[in-house]
Design goal:
This protein is 63% helix and 0% strand. With 121 residues, the protein is mostly helical.
Length: 121
């Protein structure tokens, strides 16, 4: 499963017209969620476009690296979750993601384009 997900996101970075999911929160409320544009940013990072990835979402390259690590580790061990992540790392990651989202929201409410347009590849 991790290899399939990573492979699909890599292909989506090369061929943006491949189907994907839109953010339900953004579709219902117009407010982007903390992970809005993260899939596109991860796809861009996996296909080698680090600058484009960072423009979409700062966590894109980090997520791409995590997916590659997960895929390699899962293949080597034969287990879907070879090592459960430490709760402290998950908590830190979630807090950082929420802080980044709050900053982007605050900037966009000030008229600064902190989120790309919804039609960005």
């Amino acid at each position: 499963m991790p290899v399939s997900l990573t492979g699909y996101l890599w292909l989506k970075g090369l061929h943006p017209a491949l189907p994907g999911w839109s953010c339900p929160l953004r579709a219902l409320t117009g407010v982007p969620c903390p992970t809005c544009f993260l899939s596109r940013a991860t796809s861009a990072a996996l296909s080698g476009d680090l600058a484009g990835s960072l423009q979409l979402h700062a966590f894109g390259p980090l997520m791409a690296a995590a997916l590659l690590w997960w895929s390699i580790t899962a293949l080597r061990s034969g287990a879907l979750l070879p090592r459960p992540p430490k709760p402290s790392i998950l908590s830190w990651g979630l807090a950082t993601l929420l802080a980044y989202w709050a900053l982007r929201l605050a900037l966009s409410w000030q008229g600064i384009a902190a989120f790309p347009s919804a039609t960005a590849p």
